[in-house]
Structure formats: C-alpha cells, structure tokens
Design a protein that fits this description.
- With 181 residues, the chain is mostly beta strands.
- It folds into two domains: 2-51, RNA polymerase II/Efflux pump adaptor protein, barrel-sandwich hybrid domain (OB fold (Dihydrolipoamide Acetyltransferase, E2P), Beta Barrel); 63-173, Beta Barrel (OB fold (Dihydrolipoamide Acetyltransferase, E2P)).
- The protein has one helix and 16 strands.
- It has one helix spanning 53-56, and strands at residues 2-5, 10-13, 18-19, 23-25, 29-32, 36-41, 46-51, 63-71, 75-83, 86-97, 112-121, 124-128, 135-138, 148-151, 154-157, 163-165.
- Strands 8-9-10-12-11 form a five-stranded mixed β-barrel. It has a four-stranded mixed sheet with strand order 1-6-7-3. It has a three-stranded antiparallel sheet with strand order 2-5-4, with no helix packed on it.
- A hairpin with a 2-residue loop joins strand 11 (112-121) and strand 12 (124-128).
- It is elongated and about 65 Å long.
- The relative contact order is 0.13.
- It binds zinc ion.
- Residues 141, 143-144, 146, 157, 159-160, 162 line the site of zinc ion (ZN).
- The site of zinc ion (ZN) has 8 residues, from loops.
C-alpha cells in the first residue's frame, strides 16, 4: 500500500503508528517531511515515506519550470524547480539549445522559464522551448532590473522604458509560479 504525499501531510495518528523514515509526529498525528510515497507498515506499526524517484528526475516530454542559471552562446542552463507542476527537492539541471531562436536576448540569468524535456544525452538533460506556452515566464529589465511588461513579442521596462526581446511563454507573467520568487 502506498500513496503520494506532500510535506506536512497527515498520514496516521500516533496512537495507531510510530514515525519511520522521513516522518515526524506533531503531538497527535504523524506527518511527512518530504514529497514521496507514504508506506504504512501494519506489521511493524510504522509509517515511512519513500523518495519518489519518478518525481525527482524529469523524463522525456515532462514540462519543467526552472530558473536560468547561465546563458551561453548557443544554449541556456536551467535549474529545474518543478516537474509537471510538482515542486522537486533535489537539484536537477537541464540545458536548452537556443541557436535556432531568432532573438537577441532569449532569456536572462535568473529568469523563470518553462521548458519541455526532449531527452537525456550522455547524462545531460536536454530541453526545448519550441512551443507557444514554453519560454520565459518572468524576467526583469536588463538595464535597471525593474519590472517589465509585454508589448506584442517584446518586453518594455516600466521604469526606464528600455525595450528588449525574449522568447516569451504565452503564460508570461500569468503563471502562479511567479510566487516562488
Ligand atoms: Zn529598466
């Protein structure tokens, strides 16, 4: 018996069971410390939470959201924070080739970006931003670091008026994930 749990989820009462791996009791109930599979061991009267390996590492066709770590000539490096809208605990990086995108500033370091995983090549996760909903979800002005608004396919700073281009997602500034910043 197993089911997916999020940190803080109630699994059982302390009268029924004892805390096992990755769980704690808050005085009345046993709760989980991490995202994972809750496994109730009825024989030993223990509740354990096992790491969800399927969640902690992106697979092909997964939609990921992350923070741009580095911008290079022909690719960007992204630190993945969400896989299919689920937050992940362990740090995973992916790269996204950008040489086919006709923009000067596809994304900046620290931008929040949505990508689709296309595969795993020699231990490196590769992603794409080819798709209307894929691309930058949140960015700032390159000149002054202040807020920008979208104007067709460019962004304009609300402070200094600097205009710039990005590969914007159709969900630019609309995503709930802006909150995580
Ligand atoms: Zn500005």
């Amino acid at each position: 018996m197993s089911n997916e749990v999020l940190p803080g989820d109630r699994i059982a009462t302390i009268e029924e069971y004892e805390t096992g791996k990755n769980t704690y009791d808050d005085g009345t109930v046993i709760r989980t410390q991490m995202i994972g599979d809750a496994i109730v061991d009825k024989k030993e009267r223990l509740v354990n939470v096992k790491n969800l390996s399927s969640n902690s590492f992106p697979k092909t066709d997964d939609i990921v959201i992350g923070v741009v770590e580095a911008v290079m000539g022909s690719m960007i490096v992204v630190s993945v924070a969400y896989i299919n809208s689920q937050p992940i605990v362990s740090k995973v990086e992916c790269i996204c080739p950008t040489r086919n995108i006709r923009k000067r500033n596809i994304a900046l370091v620290k931008d929040l970006i949505k990508l689709k995983i296309v595969g795993n090549l020699n231990g490196t996760l590769h992603a794409t931003m080819d798709g209307p909903d894929l691309g930058v979800l949140f960015t700032k002005c390159r000149k002054c670091g202040k807020q920008v608004v979208q104007m067709r396919d460019i962004v304009k700073c609300t402070e200094c008026g600097w205009t710039d281009d990005r590969k914007l997602s159709s969900e630019f500034l609309k995503s709930d994930f802006i909150k995580i910043r």
